[in-house]
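Let's practice the habit of predicting before peeking. Look at the sequence and jot down your guess about where helices and strands might fall. Then scroll down.
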Amino acid sequence: MNFLTKLTTAFNNIIFSNSASGHLKTILVFLISFILALSLRKIINFIVKRSSIKISDGLILDIVINVKKLTPILFYMPFYLICRISPLPNFIEKFITASGIVFIIVCSVLYITSIVHSVSSKYFSNLSNELLKNSFDIFSDIIIWTMAVLLILSNLGFNINTLLAGLGIGGMAIALASQSILGNLFNYFTILLDKPFVLGDDISIDGNIGKIKRIGLKGTRMVGIDGEEIIISNTDITKGVLKNYKNMQKRRKLVILGVRYDTSPELIKEIPSILKNIVLSVPQTEFARVHFSSFSASSLDFELVFFVLSNNFRIYMDRAQEVNFKILDEFSKRGIGFAFPTNSIYIEH
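Done guessing? Here is the structure:
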């Protein structure tokens, strides 16, 4: 009898405001609910796997597949049941409740962001713009996580109205102090969406010529024709006159020739046909026009215009050089001299 009495007394002892038998019940409920959570997770994963085979719509498929990211919430159920059936100390109950709120919101945010990323991957893959996709993912994550933090603080008892008011005033001050930064950021998205150029394009902006190396949040970097790095703010790019040579099929070349005044009229009349035949004899060129354009102070001027059928600058210069060499040869054979500035002095006796 003494042994049974002592055993009964031990079960009736109070531990953290609960009897030992109460704790045994709590442990039993925890184990059962934990096993139930494991079973539910397996069932959900099985349903998702079977459903994903039958679903053809991309968005619905992403929503179903990413449901697996919500299954960890099931494992909060045992701790929630403990708080309901067992009189735990106040600090432990508050800790479990607060942790559960944070855990559920974080799992939900991971689920939402995974869907957003999947949708952006499908959408931006059609645009072939990885940079825009990454930027969209970053800013969507910032917005979603900011809302999640505010929701957590609100559920934990913090007064977020004061916080939001402070952020509003602070945001206005920051916006006024950083107008140029925000302007460059806005124009960064303008460049990504409008796509006046992409990485690797050869462009000219306000007299600066180079190849695009990097499109940044504040400015765009390109490598100049002399090998130097040129950094131009995104605002200046959207405001300036931009030339993109990527889609250019041919380059225009203007040659101005001045011949001497003592050249015979017969040779002067032959020069247009001579220049035209020279251009037609050079590969990758397209003749446009040639004219006896003007009488200058010390020369008779001709304008020759032709196109080089390539957007490669080196090929353009090679073909222009070949045309110039042939002009020198033909003019030399025919005795046509190039003019240079001269002054004639007449002395009367």
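How did you do? The chain has three domains: 2-159, 188-244, 251-334.
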